[in-house]
Design the sequence.
């Protein structure tokens, strides 16, 4: 009897050692593949992901990674097979489903892309909804459904306010439609959250020009030209916009002379200061703590925070329920509280202007 028990024990130990060895091997090749993938060496990435998949065929993330590498190499049929294999192994692996939808978009099979991405968004546990909405927006644009295109972009940015690619595309779409105030709000929100790059600044200068805010546009252009990060293309576009601003100001001045109007007086420094103070008082900031597709989930998150934070509220925007915190009179005050939230509660919030 002891001999039998010993044999069983040895068999179990042997299996455990074998499993550990296989886990170590597939993870090793998977990590090599990811390094090559990030370095854009897709040939090497595919080779390592494939080795990993042969050792661990029940690991969905390996098949998903192989699909991504195949997609970059434009091996679209192999990519589709890999994503489907990941879903065959684990039907709840939503990331592979989203990537399958992105693949269909890339090969211009828009109807399949639409249905696959819409199915992806049904998973309330999926943490990359912003990405799924972004590609769904691209599908709607390709199908010529303009309103659905902008609705999906708005949802992508609502789920992740720091999703720069989607924010920029949405702002530029607002510009194209002539909705300059909405575009201005996006560029301003990005700057409030320290996305202070020349492309965002140029967009803000551009919409201020369209709104007739010529002084504001010139101030922003000046800051673009002073930035070391501004490349030659950005500088060229900034100078071109500056010329347009100066021409418009000259035209406005000439029109006032033709009408016999007295040129606008420059307000006194005291008056200007008073007006600026009034504008500052009207501007407030809040911190967005989360966004949800249903009021119930947003309200549950709000109630969870109410024991620790005051003035937490739920607001609805474009079908998304946002949990907002605080009313701050300055961006500096909001930034200070944003850091406290991260330090004390491990909550990453986003500053929004109200």
Sequence:
């Amino acid at each position: 009897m002891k001999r039998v028990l010993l044999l069983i024990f040895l068999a179990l130990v042997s299996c455990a050692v074998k499993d550990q060895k296989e886990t170590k091997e597939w993870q090793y090749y998977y990590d090599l593949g990811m390094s090559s993938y990030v370095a854009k060496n897709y040939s090497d990435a595919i080779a390592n992901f494939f080795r990993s998949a042969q050792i661990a065929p029940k690991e969905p993330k390996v098949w998903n990674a192989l699909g991504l590498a195949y997609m970059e190499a434009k091996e679209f049929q192999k990519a589709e097979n890999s994503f489907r294999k990941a879903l065959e192994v684990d039907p709840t692996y939503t990331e592979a489903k989203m990537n399958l939808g992105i693949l269909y978009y890339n090969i211009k099979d828009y109807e399949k892309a639409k249905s696959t991405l819409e199915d992806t968004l049904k998973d309330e546990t999926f943490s990359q909804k912003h990405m799924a909405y972004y590609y769904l927006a691209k599908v709607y644009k390709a199908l010529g459904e303009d309103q659905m295109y902008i609705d999906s972009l708005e949802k992508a940015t609502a789920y992740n306010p720091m999703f720069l690619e989607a924010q920029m595309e949405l702002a530029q779409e607002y510009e194209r439609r002539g909705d300059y105030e909405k575009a201005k709000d996006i560029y301003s929100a990005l700057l409030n959250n320290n996305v202070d790059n020349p492309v965002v600044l140029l967009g803000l200068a551009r919409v201020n020009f369209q709104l007739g805010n010529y002084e504001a546009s010139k101030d922003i252009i000046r800051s673009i030209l002073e930035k070391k990060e501004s490349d030659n293309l950005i500088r060229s576009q900034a100078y071109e916009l500056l010329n347009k601003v100066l021409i418009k100001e000259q035209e406005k001045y000439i029109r006032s002379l033709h009408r016999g109007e007295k040129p606008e007086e420059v307000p006194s420094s005291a008056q200007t200061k008073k007006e600026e103070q009034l504008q500052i008082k009207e501007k407030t900031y809040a911190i967005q703590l989360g966004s949800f597709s249903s009021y119930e989930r947003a309200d549950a998150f709000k109630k969870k925070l109410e024991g620790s934070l005051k003035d937490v509220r739920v607001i609805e925007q474009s079908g998304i329920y946002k949990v907002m915190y605080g009313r701050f009179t300055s961006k500096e005050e909001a930034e200070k509280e944003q850091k406290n939230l991260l330090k004390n509660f491990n909550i990453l919030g986003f500053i929004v202007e109200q």
About this structure: The two ends are 77 Å apart (CA to CA). DSSP finds 16 helices and four strands in the chain. Residues 110 and 139 are 6 Å apart (CA to CA).
